[in-house]
User: Fold these one by one.
Assistant:
Number 1:
Amino acid sequence: MAECQQLYDAWAKYNGSSKYGNPAAPEVALQDCRKGNYAEGIAYFKDALQRNSIPAPTSETARAGGK
């Protein structure tokens, strides 16, 4: 969940310049993470950050394999 939250925070920081379509989609992805669907939520945020040329934050939990 920590990685998902970090990715959401990075996306939200640049929200005004998003080219990624549906403005409600990030909230849905965050809800996916909160429901335990980490892979889906994290995949959405990584894709959204990449499409918008926003560097993904590094995460201790990502390196440790945590959620």
Note: The chain has four helices and no strands.
Number 2:
Amino acid sequence: MRSIGLRQARLLGGGLVAISLVLAGCSADGDGSGGSSGGGDTIRVGIEEIPSQWLPGTDNGYAWVRVPYETLVARTADDPNEFVPQLAADWEIAADSLTFNLRDGVTFHDGTPFDAEAAKFNLEYVIEEQGPFSSGFDAVEEISAPDKHTLVLELSRPSQAVMSALTGRGGVMVSPTAIEDGIIKDHPVGTGPWAYDEDLSIAGSEIGFSRYDDHWDVDADVVDQVVLVAIDDSDARINALTTGEIDLGDVSVPQADQARSAGLTVDVYPGIHYGLLFLDRGPGGAVADVDARRAICQGLDVEGLAAAAGGEFLTATNQRFLEGEYGHNPDLPPIAFDPEQAEGTLDGRVPGLTMLAFEQSQQFAEALSGMLGEVGVDLEVQTVTAAEYFASWYDGAYSLGLGDNTELTPEEWYLRWFAANAPGNPAGVESETLDAAADAALAEPDPELAEPLWAEVMRIILEEEVLTCSEVLVNQAIGYDSDKIGGVRTVTWEPSSVEFTALERKD
């Protein structure tokens, strides 16, 4: 096993304390077995809508899956580059493998044992399905379970992305029995501290969870019940918070003061990295011309939009990775706003463009549409429900998209959106220049030596080929009554996310 420095250790693994990060929106066991209904503290959480299905590795809406599901490793709430044990008690990192020592005595909510074979089943399912989060496991060559509590991932190359992917939606552990029986589509079955409770649920509008008495962390001090309530409008969620129908819920950042005036505590925190993605860029595509893509970016005054928003709503960041973060290229200036040049270049070069949006992205998408209209480009924004959005926004039917960009390493970012086989690259095209630069970065085992190679990948994506632009950090807001609810801790590395295991009722 090769030795690694402190920075590499923080990027690749380590930690001593188990945590359970959960968030607004999901369900678990199909029949409620393992749950503990009735009595005790209950937290009611307002979310936009109930996710429609719960297969592992599915883009079903940010991190809502974390109520019933857990992962092998987790991230600390305040540092996305520090990993801590969850279902894996510890692990070893080598240049060509990751070996996990799994916890003993863990069961899924339906009684199925969680062991190395179950973990292998889940990861192979995600990889073989080639869903939106499979790309993080690109370096995984083989998965084996030499014994009940040992899981080995053989790697084709050293990879930062694999450990990162294991903490996300592609790394959730789901009961193999529930997948094979088919009940997982409607009622997820995980290992988390809460299990689906049919008695607390109303089909289509509320999903309730009760504490799972056989959870492996016997010392976990969590509320007895979590009920997720579908409320599809921010105004309605604010009203539900003030009337006590819900205890906690996302609110629109521009409505934060309105919510505060109603007596609520509102925490505003960094949330989603949005970047305009040119999806239909294959031969003959609406945005196949690099000069047209650059001109579209010149027609977008994102810095002006951020300034008008007063900094509370969004911040123009120019690129996915901020200054000081691994993957940032300090030599890349933003594409300058130049509407006159944009209009001259775009004259007749692109047809009408389309983009999907949902509640959280609608305002930004419509602002982009308005700006492009000023330079002669028609961008139609189609607003749909969150479930419809996540199921189809980059399925190849739309010209442009707003990447949620939850990837925390440049390797993940490239593999999800820009590689020829990336889930977020429906056109399936990649230039020889980008392919060669990415191959060089992927082949370098030392993260410090790889960093300038990734900076070159960023330059090609953002400056030379203009595959994305107008990157912004969009703040989010969560409202609650601080006299009733305590322990509200948001996390900055996953949208709409709070640490539910820390929540407590005060009344």
Note: The chain has a mean pLDDT of 86.
Number 3:
Amino acid sequence: MLALFSREALRLVEKLKTTEAIDQRREVAHAIVGSARNVGAFPMADLAAQIEQSHAPVAGRLKALEQSVARTRDFISQYLGEG
């Protein structure tokens, strides 16, 4: 489950980076919120929730989310003995 989450989180963040429509951005961010909360990645979920709720540009928050995803993926990799 953690390996699947790790791959999916990366895929969703990449999709979020290319999404221009606010409705689509919210939908993708919402998916990140749910999956991150399900595995206990609460800092990542909080950042994605901020993006989901924002009406303004989110470049800074998106960068922070990318960094959070990278840290979470590193943790999962080490936890699973892959790194």
Note: The mean pLDDT is 95.
Number 4:
Amino acid sequence: MTDVLQQVPLIDGPIAYRGALEVVTTEAGVLARRLPQWTVAQYPEASMERQATAGSGVRLAFRTAATVVELDVLTTVAMMAEGEPNPDDAGNFEITVDGVPSGVRKAPVGNVIELDAAFQESAFVPGGPTTIRFDGLPAGAKEIEVWLPQWVKTEVAAVRADAPVDPPTATGRRVWLHHGSSISQCNEAASPLGVWPVIAARAAGVDPVNIGLSGNCYLDPFVARSIRDTPADVISLKLGINFTCRATYRLRTLGPTVHGFLDTVREGHPTTPILVVSPIACPAVERTPGPTVWRNDVFTATGNPADVAIGALTLEVVRAELRRIVAERSKQDPNIAYLDGLDLLALHEADEFLGEGLHPTPAGYRLIGERFAHLAFGPGGALAAAG
């Protein structure tokens, strides 16, 4: 059914890869990256690359009168080697037409990375590309965005359409760059438009760039430099859950590291509004330090609460320290603000909206996105448009 469709150039053509920091060519086609290629040499472990190439918030944008659009795609899915030998889940693709959600397609499983019990890569099972087809699209010229699965790597091998494809019309919207953890990458969302930064962006009328990196929000300098070098009108940084759960910092080292991260971002964005967001509720580490483990499917903190007195971090401590840092910096920087993550999802809501004690459910992500749109972008919000 593809012989009547026209091939669309993947590079230097009409397709815009919105939400990506860099687009690179691969043996399979093209790959939209959420961290630039140069950062790879500085990654501490392979999981960072898996998240940097996941598609959260990334979409292919173009203008066309086509009623059929096809993509040949190769996904790469990470799965535990034990218990999941035949994975069938790679998330979903989703299409919008003139901004309106207009279809979801199940993502095929291509390559498989097998992980051992320590979440280290133990094997690679190659796969091949598969065709994703969106048909029955409305007639007439329209703005198309094809949103990639948020939690897997997707290489685009081909794009075809049954009418000419032109570059997308500039949106005229402000660009919002957001950085966070798995709670911002939103692997558990039902579809790409269910990612909470996407929900918030669509509600607020801004264009999202989501650098939510599952398990990898550690104030890494290469991430700060990537943000520094990326154009953005407003920036938010949702910090705390990863380095609390892994006991990465003590109170003595956290403050200077946050300041250093912010200093680097400010080198490229001297007056851009920045909103520092503390963690949402996570009962296990509210008052007990990490490191955390899973015990019989229960998310558990293994630290000693008495160690808080000598600098161990809990979420209560992290929220207070982030609030203090922002208050101190705001004396010289009027464009920085703080948002308490408990205003996005509170402790009394954890049982309802945290699926396994850590990550929100799809309904939880929607709640966070709607609240963030109101608190950050609404009247009086730190990221609201001037005037």
Note: The radius of gyration is 21 Å.
